Amino acid sequence: MSELSVDHLLGIKYLNKKDINLIFETADHFKEVINRPIKKVPSLRDITIANLFFENSTRTKLSFELAEKRLSADVINFSASQSSVKKGETLIDTVNNILSMKVDMVVMRHPKPGSCVFLSDHVDARIINAGDGAHEHPTQALLDTYSIRERLGEVKGKNVVIVGDILHSRVALSNIYALKLLGAKVKVCGPKSLIPKHIEKLGVKVETDLRSALNWCDVANMLRVQHERMAVSFFPTTREYSQQYGLNKDLLDSLDKEITVMHPGPINRGVEITSDVADSDQAIILDQVENGVAVRMAVIYLLAAKINRENAN
Questions:
Q1: What angle do CA 307, 308, 313 make, to 5 degrees?
Q2: Would you call 214 helix, strand, or coil by DSSP?
Q3: CA 125, CA 127: separation in Å to the nearest integer?
Q4: Is residue 116 part of a domain?
Q5: Is residue 5 assigned to a domain?
């Protein structure tokens, strides 16, 4: 069986096209598994995984936990708000204490960009980045591109626009890397204050008019405005943002073609997307959630296969 070229999933920028295709093929298999009456496989019975979340998360944490349990792994959940981190313990000490319990893999979300790379250099376990600050969120990009492939047949040659708060979004950066790697054309759209300088260097185009962006695209990925990452206000009011960059049914129906609508969640209904769009047939938001479990199962399984091979040697 072919294997991943990397020992950890730290970011999409460390993967190649072959890696992504292998993850997708493995996810196809697991998608079939999770739709069976018995949704579990014994693949990871001898693997222990620690979920370390130093930032609040509901969907990503639940998705990882479910993926791990579907693979029959032993799971330890660690929440920083109830831990010795509050007492001043360092990240490496925290993780090493957890690893001394014979943990094989760590899934980590952390507010500091690069924290997963730092950890992978200092501890002896496989690391999966579940989001590091405003840097990367690789499994989200994998499940997003997997969902596009499922809906449209392939990602190559498709026009994808990412709309909203690009500046603070780890989802945007990981998606840009993954989409470009798979041969899609990418634009970003939002207020100039929320578009990073020099983003064109990543091979994407900037569009400030939402209607133009929607008329161009096959897929619109509508991002949440990340108020929690903003020390200052980047636009006058939420209402004004919504009027210029929110997607409603009238706008969607007025386009000259049918586009696919995505959202990484959680949705601010009525801000970046209205309820009638989120619940429409053009939206694949719930498919993204289902695919998230299959894709995360695939990533965990493929990294665990490397552990098992090393142990066998």
A1: 100
A2: helix
A3: 6
A4: yes
A5: no
Which positions ≥6 away from 225 have C-beta within 8 Å? 164, 165, 194, 238, 241, 268, 271, 272
The 3-state DSSP class for residue 20 equals helix
Q: In terms of domains, do 145 and 19 share one?
A: no
* pLDDT tens-digit readout, 92-145: 888 888 888 889 999 999 999 999 999 999 888 999 999 998 899 999 999 999
Q: Are residues 41 and 72 in the same domain?
A: yes
Q: Give the residue numbers annotated as catalytic, written as ranges.
A: 59-60, 87, 109, 137
Of all helices (H) and strands (E), which one includes residue 309? helix 285-312
Q: Are both 159 and 215 inside the same structural domain? A: yes
- Are 47 and 120 in the same domain? yes
Residues 24 and 84 in one domain: yes
CATH number at residue 25: 3.40.50.1370
Q: What is the pLDDT of residues 266-281, one digit of tens each?
A: 898 999 999 999 999 9
Could you tell me where the DSSP H helices lie in 163-284?
A: 170-181, 210-216, 238-245, 249-254, 275-278
Cα distance from N-terminal residue to C-terminal residue, the chain: 16
**240's tokens:** 């004004």
CB-count exposure of residue 36 (10 Å: 0-12, 13-18, 19+): exposed
Question: Residue 158: CB partners within 8 Å, gap ≥ 6?
Answer: 148, 152, 184, 185, 218, 219
Is the separation of the CB atoms in 248 and 274 below 8 Å?
Answer: yes
Q: Are residues 157 and 228 in the same domain?
A: yes
If one counts the domains in the chain, the total is 2
pTM, two decimals, is 0.93
